[in-house]
Amino acid sequence: MHALEGVRLIDFGQYLAGPFGPMVVGDLGADVIKVEPVQGDGMRLAGKPFFGCQRGKRDIALDLKNPEGRKIALELVATADIVHHNMTAGVANRLGIGYEDCKAVKPDIVYCNTWAYGLEGPLAHFGGLDPLYQAATGLEYEAGATHTGNAPLYYRFGMCDAANAMLSVVGVLAALVHQRRTGEGQELWTSLLDGGAVFASDALLVDGEPVPRPRLDQGLHGIGPCYRLYETQDGWIQIAAVKESEWAALCGVLGVPELADDGRFAVADLRQENREELEALLGEQFARKTSQMWAGALDDAGVPNEIPVDTKAGDLVLFDADNERLGLVAEYEHPIMGTLRQFGELIQFSDTPAHVHGPPPRVGENTKEILGELGYDEQQIEKLFADGVVNWPQPDYPWTI
Amino acid sequence: MAGALDGVRILDLSWGIAGPLGVLLLAEQGADVVKVEPPGGDPFRAYSGYAVWNRSRRSVTVDLKRPAGREALLRLAEEADVLVETFRPGVTDRLGIGYDAVHARNPRLVYCSCPGYPEGHRMAGRPGYDALVQASSGQQWEQPGWRMGPIFLHMPMPSMGAMFLIPTGILAALVALEETGRGQHVKTSLFQGALLYTTQIWQHVEKAPAAFHDLMGKSYPPGIHQQMLFEVADGEWVHASVMSGLTPTKSQDELLGLEDPPDPMTFLTLPPEERDKFTVKRKEAYLTHDRDTLVRSFQEHNHAIEAVITMEEALGAGGSPHPQLVANGMVAEVADPELGETTQIGVPINLLGTPGGIQGGQPLPGEHNTEIFGLLGYSDAEIAAFTGEAV
């Protein structure tokens, strides 16, 4: 049994902040049904981002603007525990799949909307993309060391999309625990903006004044002389000499034991204060040997360090023997794209194993099967197709994924 | 407060970022969290973010190396629903508080572990500081910057991934518990937290043409979104976006005051050199505008745009807080026992039927020793013997 076996989630979302959460819920064993427009999710054209948030789902292609399509959608909702989407303000209500519509057919439904900005407020009517929220919550400012005169820097991982999705997963599961214990469903929401704020949650004002927090140097190496990247003879090394004993050991390994006794660097606060001076001194030493040489010596001396790995866009991680053995890699066959590898189990369970089990579906991959489960017979299903209400892969399937 | 997780009792043995912050998400949906610290307090108390990530919980101190301390922890675990720990693999077993020991005393307990690397991995014994995992998991190489080579990620990405995986795993196990009646061992790691954010960029696809990878490929300068960052007057910056979901009532170029702007759809079809020429003009135009005035005029005309600000500014330092963060309840006043009146982020998950809430500032180390161990029947002298604190 999987942790969320028997839980069904209906996913009306598009882009990333909508569908990524349901994908994670699906990895935990829930039956996730993606409701996709008959003309296909626009994100299919983007390639990778689509694959990044759709694996393991079943897919029904349905025209929600058609009354028949809406009726089917609500029939699906009636079989579900969770409804999840990221439509902008008013759209779900107009389509007739808002919270009240869903609650009417499934009184204990857990209904989640992942917004761009939020439920109410001056910008609530706006949609928006991940980078706006990296800007609004200080992520880009700090990532680029903008205080040094640099330009702000965008993180290319889609952080706020993922944060919004993951907040929604935590919220949906908390609501599900409550529903299982009390029989009550509810509506909930999260946002891209709030997701960004969580990433910067170490920011804090006391009596309205900022409490200083660590900042990057202009070269984007790190946040202090003992917690940063250094360039070596042939590459790079990341060190984390955070304890006093590790600082002394670091000086020993680098062949500058006198620095450990130098008054300018005697305690952590002073090392931070005289950061540039110390970084130059340590940097000079690191440049003398290769990363491998330093890593070995630092390991022997008990100074935490790692050599930053260029994984070739993830391939070295996705084909790593330990990662494969531990289930951290997932592999499946896509009917068009062939063998596909992505990260596997991000959470492991001793009794109810994760369920990372299949490729992203094609448009309407499971339409017939799902309609059959709802009680539609073959004749009705063919009629729905002929009327353009539903779709499934045809011999001339026009999408590349 | 009757939150969704009302009645769920959590023992938080974690430190650093991922554990305390992951637990916070549960605490502020109603879970009753007790932080278990070593005598003298969590060594991370001095670190930035500590007061926020460790709020909304009570604190006890326990010396886990003493038999009486270990037994006290096991007694607490008998009464708890969840335990969270972030020791390196193997450490809790050596201390006698590993999964097997705790499960034997409380089979319904969900035991969540989040070390730096997964148990059984060749890296499992290595130190698990966030930046080290950024390096070893390849994330630093994925981020382009102003120079070639790995870039230190200011946002502690592996921790900020694991922080979500911890409550996700715990809650999934609590849902399963309703079916099975049994707790279990839930495991994640900072390394797996880092993988979370690779979902759009790390895929090995056998038959993918180059175009499949283009949109999310690493590039210098860094990526499509980086090109939507514009410097405005006074050395400030804005991030404009290509979509807002709304229909603009004036074009970006009109709002910038550019003459003879190309039609936006035509612009997209121009050859790159032509587009670059016009981008230079746009950049010059942005430089002439005051940041806040420009942001307002863009938003009034349905263009998505944000000023590039610090999170401290977003919370209201030096001016007004971000109005939408205020509307979302994300600018919170919290009375902190050490710092006084503080402004912190609020509760980022909004359950409308069972609203969550902040349950007080960070506790002092051992603040609740007497209250919590007293209820278990310990005398003051017994408590002092394993908490390392005078009562």
Tell me what the structure shows:
- The complex is a heterodimer of chains A (401) and B (391).
- Chain A is α/β, with parallel strands linked by helices.
- Chain A has helices at 20-27, 48-51, 67-77, 91-95, 99-105, 130-136, 139-143, 159-182, 192-199, 244-253, 268-273, 275-286, 291-301, 315-318, 321-325, 367-373, 378-386, and strands at residues 8-11, 31-36, 58-62, 82-85, 110-115, 186-191, 205-206, 209-210, 227-231, 236-240, 305-306, 329-334, 338-343, 348-349, 390-391.
- In chain A, the strands form 4 sheets. Chain A has a 7-stranded mixed beta sheet with strand order 6-5-4-1-2-3-15, with helices on both faces. Chain A has a 3-stranded antiparallel beta sheet with strand order 9-10-11, covered by helices on one side. Chain A has a two-stranded antiparallel sheet with strand order 7-8.
- In chain A, helix 1 (20-27) crosses helix 8 and helix 10 (244-253) packs across helix 13 (291-301).
- By secondary structure, chain B is α/β, with parallel strands linked by helices.
- Chain B is built from 19 helices and 13 strands.
- Chain B has helices spanning 18-27, 50-53, 67-78, 91-95, 99-105, 130-136, 139-142, 157-180, 190-196, 210-214, 223-226, 252-256, 264-269, 272-287, 291-300, 311-314, 323-327, 369-375, 380-387, and strands at 9-12, 32-37, 58-61, 82-85, 110-113, 185-187, 204-205, 229-231, 237-240, 305-307, 331-336, 340-345, 350-351.
- The interface between A and B is large, with 159 and 149 residues.
- Strand 13 of chain A pairs antiparallel with strand 7 of chain B, so a sheet runs across the interface.
